[in-house]
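Input (structure):
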C-alpha cells in the first residue's frame, strides 16, 4: 500500500506541475480538455491516498477509479509532445498500474 500511496502523491505533483506548464503554452486553448483531466487526476490521486491511508472499506473501488482516471490522463497528455506532458503521462501510467494492483 505504501508504494501506491507514494505514486499517488507523485502523480498529483506531476499533474499539478503539468497544469502549470500547460497554462503557459501558446496553444493553451487546445489543451482545455487536458487541463480538466489533469485537475481531475490530481484530485482523485489525493483522495485515493487518503482512502488507503485510513484503510477505508472503499479503498479498492476508489483505487480502480483512480487507475481509470490516471489512464485517461496519460492518453490525453500523450497528445502533446512537450516534455512536461510526456513525463506526466509516464507517471500517470505508473500510478494507474499501482492502483490497479491495489484494486485487485
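Output (sequence):
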Amino acid at each position: 500500500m505504501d508504494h501506491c500511496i507514494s505514486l499517488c502523491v507523485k502523480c498529483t505533483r506531476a499533474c499539478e506541475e503539468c497544469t502549470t506548464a500547460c497554462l503557459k503554452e501558446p496553444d493553451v486553448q487546445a489543451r482545455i480538455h487536458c487541463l480538466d483531466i489533469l485537475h481531475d487526476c490530481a484530485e482523485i490521486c489525493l483522495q485515493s491516498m487518503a482512502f488507503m491511508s485510513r484503510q477505508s472499506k472503499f479503498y479498492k473501488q476508489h483505487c480502480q477509479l483512480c487507475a481509470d482516471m490516471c489512464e485517461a490522463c496519460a492518453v490525453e497528455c500523450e497528445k502533446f509532445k512537450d516534455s512536461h506532458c510526456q513525463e506526466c503521462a509516464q507517471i500517470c501510467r505508473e500510478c494507474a498500474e499501482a492502483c490497479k494492483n491495489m484494486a485487485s
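Notes: The chain has one domain: 2-103. The radius of gyration is 13 Å.
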